[in-house]
Amino acid sequence: MLTLYVIKSCDTCRKARKALDSRGIPFRTHDLRDDGVSATLLDELLARVSLATLLNKRSTTWRSLDEETKVSLDTDKAKELMQQAPTLLKRPLLDTGDDIIVGYRDGDYDALSH
Q1: Domains of the chain with bracketed CATH
Q2: For a designed S-S bond to 93, which of 5, 17, 27, 52 qualifies (C-beta 3.0 to 4.6 A apart)?
Q3: CB within 8 A of 83, min separation 6: which ones?
């Protein structure tokens, strides 16, 4: 079954959920704030998606970090920060089993089948 990683207050995440629902595609939802971001989850995601792709540099949380933290960020520090602040993860993240689809734009899920 597909897993959609979201933050429930995120408009783009709501659009992604609606797109899957409208296609009748079953999925489970994992709220990154409510359900948490474990080190294991981050390791699984980073094994399949680069840190540059996963890190949300447009977030308010990222912009609020001091410049030294941003410049010296390595994978371990990024994982620690993402666990503390799930908004540092781009979202939604759709785990299809084969791929991780990062973000959502209309049409992104058109190729998925039930």
Answers
A1: 2-102 (3.40.30.10)
A2: 5
A3: 36, 37, 38, 39, 42
The tens digit of pLDDT for each residue in 67-99 reads 999 999 999 999 999 999 999 999 999 999 999
**Residue 114's pLDDT is what?**
64
Q: Which residues of 51-74 are buried (b: 16+ CB within 10 A; e: fewer)?
A: eeebbbeebebbeebeeeeeeeee
User: In the numeric block, which tokens belong to residue 71?
Assistant: 């410049």
Beta bridge partners of 89: 55
Region 46-62: mean pLDDT is 96
For residue 96, which of 114, 74, 77 has the smallest C-alpha distance?
114
What is the pLDDT, as a whole number, of residue 18?
Answer: 96
C-alpha span between 106 and 4 (Å, rounded) = 16
